[in-house]
Amino acid sequence: MRTLLVLLTVLLLAGGVQGDLQPQTEEPEIFVISVDSTNLRFSPSQVTITEGDTVRFFWSGQALPHNAVEANGVFDSGEPARAVDYAYTFERGSNGTYDFVCEPHASAGMVGQITVEPAPPLVEEEAEEQEEPEDTPFLSGSATLLSMFLAWAFVSRRHGNG
Ligand SMILES: [Cu+2]
User: Fold this and answer.
1) How many angstroms separate the alpha carbon of residue 143 from the centre of ligand 1?
2) C-alpha 104 to ligand 1 mean position (Å)
3) N or C: where does the chain have the smaller number of CB atoms within 10 Å of the terminal CB?
């Protein structure tokens, strides 16, 4: 009988632990910026991302050498090249607007803009305010089961003693 009680308690605890699990935040994404068929435009030239995301400047076999340099030097893919694979991750707190150019072709209009939106609050921050109604039936179900079992155990013990 004690084993059963332990088993029920474990089940109850497992339910409690499950209730503490928070939904995952969105996975960081990678946005690829390449060069379009005109050879003088980024493609896409404008992206909107979220903090934590990565922008990857990626092209190869280009007719002309290109690079991607942020106006304030936040990122810089280096010397213009026909093949570039350069990634920059916008960390939490980096929200804002970032203009970048291809240095050799900036005057030809080879420019772009990255808009970084703030990331949602950290999971830990919202953990306490978040209600999880879907877990309540299971928890209360386990609690009911446990109290019913305890009552039964109590009664049967009294009968045994009497
Ligand atoms: Cu260029």
Assistant:
1) 66
2) 6
3) C
Listed residues: CB within 5 A of ion ligand 1: 66, 102, 105, 110
- Whole-number Å distance, alpha carbon 84 to ligand 1 midpoint, is 11
Question: Among all chains, which residue has been given the structure tokens 């280096």?
Answer: 78
User: Distance from the CA of 89 to the center of ligand 1, in angstroms?
Assistant: 22
Alpha carbon of 82 to ligand 1 centroid (Å)? 9
The CATH number given to 30-121 is: 2.60.40.420
pTM value surpassing 0.90: no
- Domains of the chain by residue range: 30-121
**22 contacts 123 by C-beta, under 8 angstroms:** yes
| Alpha-carbon torsion (105, 109, 112, 113), positive or negative | positive
